[in-house]
Design goal:
Largest sheet: 3 strands, mixed
Number of strands: 5
Number of helices: 10
Shape: elongated
Structural class: mainly alpha
Strand order of the largest sheet: 3-2-4
Length: about 300
């Protein structure tokens, strides 16, 4: 498969083997190891406590030296998903901390509260997240890229697009804006190439896992607006009735429709023409005498 790369994600694909082959590392399995020999961390800087801030101060160092430190130190175990779908990964804590302040905080809190200190195995339960999305995150973490949907067979494009939607929500939690941008691009491309768009059941979680003003909210609300206004399909506002229970979705869709109309003004409903707003069967004669003297004998079409 082709890959979408992120230039400043470390380490790069040239420095070590892919993080998984077929299936990612599971409980107890060792994560991918770099081809280079890993040097010991510098004295005075415990590897168990390295954070994104610590590494930010050393960005001017040789990349290989930074990678050595990222791929050294303790492993952590992360469980993702729930029930039969749950999967486990063993990953380098330093690498997770480097890319995500979320992990640095969570594992830092565990290490601080542990009665055994930093030597105990740290774990994290992400049962509400998608294993498929986390698998994409792990590949990006160790290779600096995610799969490109363009190189996939058509029947696989939608599944990848939906996994990228879930990856986007995961990135909101993990505070990873660059990967979030790659995910939304892959989602859009996957939808376009598959000839499919998300339905209300896929749109609702977007509003549950992203903040107000999120670009992904903007995207799905515009998709819904376009579907509602498309005269060539059978979707209308009722299709998204459950989504409209979220008032922010409703507002976003209405605003998207307004923007899409390009300033075109709807007919004035207060203009007294015909009996469109009278209460009688459609198509029947209207004998109501309006106040302006017209006999109102129009027939609705």
């Amino acid at each position: 498969m082709g890959d979408i790369g992120l230039s400043d994600s470390l380490p790069t694909d040239e420095d070590f083997e892919p993080p998984f082959s077929g299936a990612p590392p599971r409980g107890g399995a060792s994560p991918p190891q770099p081809r280079m020999e890993i040097e010991s961390p510098k004295p005075g800087m415990p590897v168990a406590s390295l954070t994104a801030f610590d590494f930010a101060k050393e960005r001017s160092l040789n990349d290989a030296s930074v990678r050595d430190r990222l791929l050294s130190g303790p492993l952590v175990e992360i469980s993702v998903g729930d029930g039969k779908e749950q999967r486990q990964w063993s990953l380098h804590r330093n690498l997770l901390n480097y890319h995500s302040d979320y992990f640095a905080r969570r594992f830092g809190e565990q290490a601080h509260s542990s009665t055994h200190g930093s030597s105990s195995l740290l774990t994290l339960d992400l049962r509400e997240e998608s294993p498929s999305a986390f698998e994409l995150f792990v590949k990006w973490l160790y290779q600096g890229c995610i799969d490109d949907v363009t190189s996939m067979e058509k029947e696989k494009k939608w599944d990848h697009a939906f996994a990228c939607q879930q990856l986007y929500s995961l990135c909101e939690k993990l505070e990873l804006p660059q990967l979030k941008n790659a995910a939304i691009d892959q989602f859009r491309r996957g939808c376009f190439e598959a000839g499919l768009v998300p339905g209300p059941e896929e749109m609702s979680p977007v509003y549950e896992t992203t903040p107000k003003g999120s670009p992904f909210r903007k995207l799905v609300s515009r998709i819904a607006a376009r579907q509602i206004m498309d005269p060539d399909n059978n979707r209308n506002a009722a299709t998204y009735q459950k989504c409209f229970a979220n008032p922010e979705f409703a507002v976003d869709v209405i605003n998207s429709i307004r923007e899409g109309m390009g300033g075109k003004l709807l007919p004035d409903p207060t203009e007294l023409v015909g009996c469109e707003y009278h209460d009688h069967p459609k198509g029947s004669s209207c004998t109501f005498e309006s106040k302006n003297g017209s006999n109102g004998h129009s027939i609705l079409k």
